[in-house]
Amino acid sequence: MSRIAILGAGSWGTALTLSLARRGGHELTLWAHSPAHAEELAETGENKRYLPGFIVPADVRITSKLQDAIHGTSVVLCVTPSQALRSVMEQIAPSLTKDQVLLSASKGIEEKTFLRMSQIMANYAPENPHGTLGGPSFAQEVASAMPTAITIAADDEQIGKRLQDDFSSSSLRVYRNEDVAGTELGGALKNVIALAAGVVTGLELGNNAAAALITRGMVEVTRLAIACGGRRETLSGLSGIGDLVLTCTGGLSRNRTVGVELGKGRKLPEILESLNGKVAEGVRSTTAALGLAARYGVEMPITEQMALILHQDKSPRDAIRELMSRPGRLE
Ligand SMILES: NC(=O)C1=CN([C@@H]2O[C@H](COP(=O)(O)OP(=O)(O)OC[C@H]3O[C@@H](n4cnc5c(N)ncnc54)[C@H](O)[C@@H]3O)[C@@H](O)[C@H]2O)C=CC1
Ligand SMILES: O=C(CO)COP(=O)(O)O
């Protein structure tokens, strides 16, 4: 049995809580950022705002107090939006004991520092074991117990095996690897490409264009991940091509949806407003991805055009035209 704190009661934190509860054998605490949200969750069991239609079992403890949430747990699962992880780590670091495993399930890169989630966790808790959870996994489908395969990466093999066992169930198949950097970057960078795939769909450019975008997107994601220390095999796996395909083609993706709306000509602030507090990580990870690309001298033409659309109001049609008119090159 593990005592697990789930930090983040958005759709993914809630879906993982439901999945862990269904597996059974754990003591679970779910932390919600807002006290009002925690109160509503504790009272009704339903996460009406972020994952309506599912009931969190009554034996899952709900709290809005971070110290209470992590106290006495063996695993601390961080599932906040990426840009909020630093603030959570700052608050919990003084109370952590060295044996508590820190596992991130967020998919983003910190905007100002270009750091991955595990690097932020290691900054605040260098002696704690840590890992990351990735792979193609829409929260609604996991919450519905639809068959899903994910991957958990941890540098320490024994920790990885323990986490694999903790999360595995009849509807959640968990693979394992030791490439934390590759797994995190696969998850974060696919969001940028999903925005671009959405743009292509919103512009009604056809299936050929979408397939080209996904394929060339994968090339630049892989290039950067490898430059940052990731392994090519990881990018060919669930947290690379698996998550990229899901997010670029699945109607449930928030990132793809933002791209579709941009392609249709709507403006970013208005689109973000209509997400009603739900996070589309790619919007802020695009800048960080470009920062990393510059640091490592990696070419990322799709990411570059996506940044111009998002942050400099470039017309999506002009961005695609520019991608199409790049000089011919070897594949
Ligand atoms: N929803 C999904 O299907 C999946 C999401 N993820 C990742 O999980 C992470 C969390 O996303 P979702 O659960 O989808 O979020 P969401 O979009 O459902 O909800 C946003 C969450 O952020 C919280 N929040 C807002 N400001 C905060 C702050 N300052 N500090 C802490 N929390 C704050 C809100 O209370 C809410 O719980 C993201 O990195 C996302 O990429 C990963 C796999 C699947
Ligand atoms: O990461 C996801 C599925 O694996 C969810 O993607 P979105 O954040 O685009 O909804």
UniProtKB/TrEMBL annotation:
PANTHER family according to UniProt: GLYCEROL-3-PHOSPHATE DEHYDROGENASE (PTHR11728), GLYCEROL-3-PHOSPHATE DEHYDROGENASE [NAD(+)] 2, CHLOROPLASTIC (PTHR11728:SF1)
Predominant subcellular localization, coarse grouping: cytoplasm
Cell inner membrane among keywords: no
EC number: 1.1.1.94
Protein name: Glycerol-3-phosphate dehydrogenase [NAD(P)+]
UniProt: NADPH binding residues: 11-12, 33, 50, 107, 139, 254, 279, 281
Residues spanning the signal sequence: none
Cited function: Catalyzes the reduction of the glycolytic intermediate dihydroxyacetone phosphate (DHAP) to sn-glycerol 3-phosphate (G3P), the key precursor for phospholipid synthesis.
Annotated ranges, domain Glycerol-3-phosphate dehydrogenase NAD-dependent N-terminal: 4-158
GO molecular function: glycerol-3-phosphate dehydrogenase [NAD(P)+] activity
